[in-house]
Amino acid sequence: MKKNILFLLFFGNWLYLFAQEDSLFIFDNMQDNLFENIEEQVIDSESEEVDFADNLDFLLEGQTQKININELPAEVAYSLLKFTDYQYYQLQLYIEIYGELVTIYELAAVEGFSRSDVERIINFVEVRPAKSMRSVFRSFFRRSSQKLLLRYGQVLEKQAGYYSEQENAYLGNPLRLTFKYTFKSGDNFAMALSGEKDAGEEFFKGTQKQGFDHYAFFVQFKNIGVLKNCVIGDYNLDFGQGLVMGGRSMGTKGGGAGQIRRFASMIRPSAPMNESSNLRGVAVTIGDAHYLGTLFYSHRFFDGELLIDSDSNCFFDGSLSLSPYHRTLNEVIRKQSFYNRIYGGNFQLKRRIFSVGATITKTDFSAEILPAKELYKKFDFTGKSMCNFGMDYKVIVPKSILFGEFGVSRNGGIAFLQGGVFDVDPRCKLSVLFRYYDPKYIALNSSAFGENSLSHNEIGMYVAADFVLSRIVQLVLNGDFYYFPWLRFRTDQPTNGFDCTAKLIFSLHRNLQLHVKYQYKMKEGNYRITAYYQTLATQQQHKLRCAFNYSPIDIMKMKTEIDFVLNVLPSHSFKQGILLFQDVGVKIPKWNFGANLRFAFFDTDSYDERIYAYENDLLYMFTINGYYGKGVRFYVMLDYGYSFFDLQLRFSQTFYDDRSSIGSSHELINGQQKSEIRAQVIFHI
Amino acid sequence: MLGQYENNCASASFLNKSYVSASFHNRFLLKELENEAVSGILRFHQNAFVFQVSHFGYAKYGDLTVAGAYARSFGKHIAIAARFYYSLLHAADYPSVHSVTFDVSLYAPIHDKVGIGFSVYNPARLKYGIVGKTMMPLRFYFNIDYRISKNLLIYSQVEKELKSRLGVGVGAVFRINKLFLTSYVQFPAPKLSIDAELWWRHFLFGFGCEYQLAVGFVPKITLHYSFESRSK
Q1: Which residues of B touch A548 (CB under 8 A)?
Q2: Calpha distance A540→A63 (Å, rounded)
């Protein structure tokens, strides 16, 4: 009766709590664990839509079965299981000395692992004998798996670019179509072919008679004698810490203390379903367990409008970027107008406790890149060719790892970074990273740790610490001090910056987790005082995120999140933004059916207060939506699996209350709402 | 109106008795801003039906709302509900406006101490007058509550309406035998409320007052009747 009395008083849902029973626990699957990592990093980098097909294919290969701890790839250990280098090293050492683990609980006896580490990963891993590396040709097709992915997407409201009276209108229809076929045989052979047509592009007619606007493919041979890896087609390269050559892999700000180091995955085949900055050509790695040598060659096209002088020399005046869109006649004319050739090599010497590597790359352009007019681009790449050389190392000392890389470009610019991850205590991990990237240093394929997308014009120190405060509380802290010795976009002087994050994770109950994250960012930028005079001013940003993850029953997961952003402007006035959303996810394994739903409210004073949040999307698509303006957004996603195919449908709609039209130029929608539908089917052959 | 947390109808399915209620409140001590409501909860097994009729305003201007809801719990840890509203807006010398909308709610008592719920009012963005131009309010509520001890419970509510800022409130319920005292404070538009309720046989008598900064006091009175005899 007591609960009814209280209930009646307020009609309040909480009153029922006076007589409750314990509930089920939250099961975080591997995908969630990985997405959590990616989410932190992508939100910080503020990119909106990322196709993770290749990364997820590799990392979630074992999604249907647990990861075998006896043959654990380094990238999986670091990104999915959140091992530190020291833990991974000790595990490999243990297996080498004592043989394969026979039970997962044996892991607690390995140096560097605590009981809580074992409990944390026990749902994801199991113990199986390592597979024989010997390949039998007869089993080439018997052990093979094939997958065909077909994807469709469309914005339902008609955008301005599709009206024929629009100047330079889109040539094609608003459908976005993609496909990807993959074939894999054991651990030795894989191939893939993918194609993409963006919305607005023609399809099998007009300017796109070849069908899709973009095709990508690769053929890969692996672990055949001394041939460690050979990729023909599209691929990514990761060497050292990415100072000379690095893909956009893990290891950046926003993660925990153990996440700052890049994990050189060497050659990674890739057939992305969009125009990304992949290399295209041939890459080969040969060697053994101690010596590895890699050679690569790539030939890649760029879009742009070329200038041609009287001697038929070509020049390019603009920024080097891979435009994914060829929807209008102007975009088609600029398509693949010049190319670059990238070639080089890497050598690595690996020992149990240390490794050193050297990388050399040369980049040649078919057209000369002209110097930019803007002063802040003074040190940007110009000319026709560039050469880079770098050396990297990693050494494991007791309970810690030191790593670093040094790079130099042909114009005399240097860059280096030095970092360390320290397992101080089972309850405390620390990491430090110092970076110095000369403004003159130019490496067109670099992506080392830092604020800038390319590694130049930056000096900084990053520190991070993870603490286990109690059985239910974890604390993650990090801070980054940086200085830009040369001008940047919208900063007319060298500037400073600082950001720090404090994240508390409360595991209040087995099925209730609370995340509280506070982030502070301080940057200097131009501030216009009058119409003719501007100076440098400090801009500060405070962000607070509060997220409840809970699972009332084992087939249902829910998340409630509240985000708040406060920008302190140089005039000492404030602007703010709020995002509030509710996620409900249901998964019924018995019916192979799943559904995800989100309802979000957002209210921001301007675009600068936009708030990014992860959204469930089709498998292999990772969407971070930027919420700004005033309105509501919802999406619903349905997922059904049958014996040989998986079907996913997603419908999303955003309603803006503060405007009568959405977007601009060709993307303009006359109306207050934008709806999008996506569908995907994956055939497992 | 049944109380300040009537926005989450799903929780009604966790009741094990049926009730009828009547309430009255007067906004800012103005007779033109009075609200009268009667409601009932019919509860059986895991289901609950909720009926509500309320009127806000006075003879020359007012809003009559009739609502009916169905709530169902699935096991002990989850309940969902849908409530449909019919609203009649009347103003002297103007034609009356008939509108319909609905809300959906979910309530999850995670375990014996924590309960979490949310609801969305008018998620389909329906308009006044059904085909009118002005959208009815679109609101989101999130509630969380934590029972500290047998006689003390704290709770928090987050409310966001499309056209207004986020509102966050915290409150506490104290139980002293048959007397229940509740205090609640909300920001950023400051609001403080204090209520006292007392059980007597099948009846629950409630008196309370809310103070909203800049606009004034909202006195209220409630009466509830339970259909079954009180158990020990």
Answers
A1: 116, 144
A2: 42
B140 touches chain A (CB under 8 A): yes
What pLDDT is attached to residue A23?
A: 28
- Predicted ipTM beyond 0.90: no
Residue contact B163–A4, C-beta within 8 A: no
Task: Specify the pLDDT at position A59.
Answer: 54
Which tokens go with A52? 């993770």
* Inter-chain residue contact A603 with B125, CB threshold 8 Å: no
Say if residue B147 is exposed, middle or buried (CB neighbours under 10 Å; 0-12, 13-18, 19+): buried
**End-to-end CA, chain B:** 28
Q: Which residues of B touch A631 (CB under 8 A)?
A: 162
Smallest Cα distance from A50 to chain B, Å: 29
Longest dimension (CA), chain A: 95
Of A10, A13, A558, the CB nearest to B4: A10
- Mean of all residue pLDDT scores within chain B: 89
User: What is the rounded distance in angstroms from the CA atom of residue A626 to the CA atom of residue A637?
Assistant: 19
Q: What is the pLDDT of residue B2?
A: 39
DSSP code of residue A99? -
The model's pLDDT over A112-132, given as tens digits with 9 standing for 90+, comes to: 787 777 777 777 788 887 765
Contacts of A17 in chain B (CB under 8 A): 109, 112-115, 145-147, 153
Whether B167 and chain A come into contact, CB under 8 Å, resolves to no
Whether A321 has a pLDDT exceeding 80, the answer reads no
Kindly report the nearest CA distance between residue A27 and chain B, in angstroms: 15
Give the confidence band of A542 by pLDDT, cuts at 50, 70, 90.
very high
Touching check for B165 and chain A: CB below 8 Å? Answer: yes
> Cα–chain-centroid distance for residue A188?
27
Q: Is the model's pLDDT at A7 over the cut of 70?
A: no
Q: Which residues of B touch A603 (CB under 8 A)?
A: 160, 165-166
Question: Can you say whether residue A14 is alpha, beta or left, with left for phi > 0 and alpha for psi between -120 and 50 degrees?
Answer: alpha
Contacts of B80 (CB under 8 A, 6+ apart): B10, B71, B72, B74, B104, B105, B106, B107
Sheet holding A49-51, edge to edge: A49-51, A621-627, A611-615
- Mean pLDDT in residue range A448-456: 87
Question: Does residue A354 contact residue A396 with C-beta atoms inside 8 Å?
Answer: yes
Q: How far is A543 from chain B (nearest CA, A)?
A: 16
Which two three-digit tokens encode residue B183? 């205090």
